[in-house]
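Hi R.,

Here's the chain you asked about this morning:
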Amino acid sequence: MKRHTRIFKAVFNPVRFGTLHTYYWLRRKGKRTHPGEERPLYSVIVASYNYANLIGETLDSLLAQTYGNYEIIVVDDGSTDNSMAVVQRYCEKYSQIKLYTHEDHKNHGLCETLKLALTKAQGDYIAFCESDDRWDENHLETITQFINSYKNVVFVHNRVIFTGSPQCHQKTVVHISSMQKHYFHTGYNRININKHATYNRIATFSSVVIKADVLRPLDFNSPVPSHLDLWLYRQIFAKYPMHYCDTAVTYWRMHADSYCSKDLKERQEQLRDALEELVAKSNELIQASQA
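And the predicted structure, written out as tokens:
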């Protein structure tokens, strides 16, 4: 009897069984069982437009990163305040910040601004920080550790911290918080681009990191300029999963001048037809790319 007990324990050792079970479960989910030590170069893109009073705080948060392998690319989109002067002062002091403008120094919108930034970016991954948002000092270090924990990471979205005026974003906070709590789970998330197609589940560009060679070939010509992010995400999620990092390292500021200060339901109703067109056209684009 003792002999059989020893054999049973040897074969069904809970430590060994747990290790094997974990190994195969993690492999199914795309988790690296032996994490690498990649230290990728990040190109952090800051699209600047008339936030002279806030962009200094944004740049300070980027410069405070504990992770060292990154560049900061600021593209001014025809600001009419003194945003350019603020950024230029930073450029004179910090060599890792580069400032670019459109040739005519006029406002061309986010699409052209991001396209210009991408022509200057050298990074393996493209990160974004909007010029009225901030990052935690461990933002890039946290994302790097996350990328090193999984295989073939193309798109990372991290949890956000809401800042700014509460009355400007109360309903949006409830919506996004619910998404983060109930819809996403840490690690691999396959996004169904046809379910609730006109809803953007990503809180802000400032909480997104995308592999550069996946982002560059995308079509940036969104039929709804204010929803360029949704247009790009649909193209990505048709082919790749989203990896969700449930660590809050982005401070998303909402204020009276920000687009998201408007009521979420009101925005959706105002743009319903336009967003349906966006979905239809993006589906055509996706189908053509897969043909």
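The chain has a mean pLDDT of 84.

Let me know if you need anything else.
M.
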